């Protein structure tokens, strides 16, 4: 058996099948896959990443860590050395100081069955699509801001986030992460009295 392969047991038939993780390279604020059918299928089936012109798939740091944790990908640095889970968190945290809090919210939403994509062009951390909806089929329903429960925001900060959501015709959701890495979601909407 290939040392980079993972054996998965299909519960329906109790058969074992060998899955080879997709090879990827960490390139500072993104992770690039090889130009393979497996990588493009990951995009087509579950909306992970963005397909580039050269056939590679570009993953955000949150997407990459999620797939690394699920053993769907292996990550290598620029010198072709493997990057494990803890190393990846350290490297990603240098690029995105709030990375761990963002990842906890990303992972929780993905595990709940939502498609989660970056939302930098909207001035938010993530945009979240309804279950069963992929980007391009419809617009995202929410923009989400991951925050730690101990962080402090002014009313001006909060109003700015709400204005961004309103101007992009999306609902504002705050993903509040506690010290045990549990997430509570708060949806905020404009109300006219």
Describe the structure.
- This protein has 193 residues and is of the alpha+beta class.
- The protein has 2 domains: 1-97, 3-Layer(aba) Sandwich (MutS, DNA mismatch repair protein, domain I), CATH 3.40.1170.20; 98-193, Trna Endonuclease, Chain: A, domain 1 (3-Layer(aba) Sandwich), CATH 3.40.1350.
- The protein is built from 5 helices and 13 strands.
- The chain has helices spanning 37-46, 61-69, 85-95, 99-111, 155-167, and strands at residues 6-10, 15-19, 22-27, 30-33, 50-51, 57-59, 73-76, 82-83, 115-118, 126-129, 142-148, 171-177, 183-188.
- The strands form 3 sheets. The protein has a 6-stranded mixed β-sheet with strand order 5-6-4-3-7-8.
- The longest helix is centred in the middle third of the chain and has 13 residues, at 99-111.
What is the strand and helix layout of this fold?
Layout: E1 6-10, E2 15-19, E3 22-27, E4 30-33, H1 37-46, E5 50-51, E6 57-59, H2 61-69, E7 73-76, E8 82-83, H3 85-95, H4 99-111, E9 115-118, E10 126-129, E11 142-148, H5 155-167, E12 171-177, E13 183-188
Parallel strand pairs: 3-7, 11-12
Antiparallel strand pairs: 1-2, 3-4, 4-6, 5-6, 7-8, 9-10, 10-11, 12-13
Question: How many structural domains does the protein architecture include?
Answer: 2
Number of E-type strands: 13
Tell me the β content.
Answer: 25-35%
Assembly status: single chain
Q: Would you state the CATH class of the largest domain?
A: Alpha Beta
Distance between the termini: 66 Å
Low-confidence segments, given as residue ranges, are none
CATH topology of the largest domain: MutS, DNA mismatch repair protein, domain I
Strand count, sense and barrel status of the largest sheet are: 6 strands, mixed
Q: Kindly report the name of the CATH homologous superfamily of the largest domain.
A: tRNA intron endonuclease, N-terminal domain
Question: What's the CATH architecture of the largest domain?
Answer: 3-Layer(aba) Sandwich
> What percentage of residues falls in helices of 4 or more residues?
25-40%
Q: If strands are numbered along the chain, what order do they take across the biggest sheet?
A: 5-6-4-3-7-8
SS-derived structural category: alpha+beta
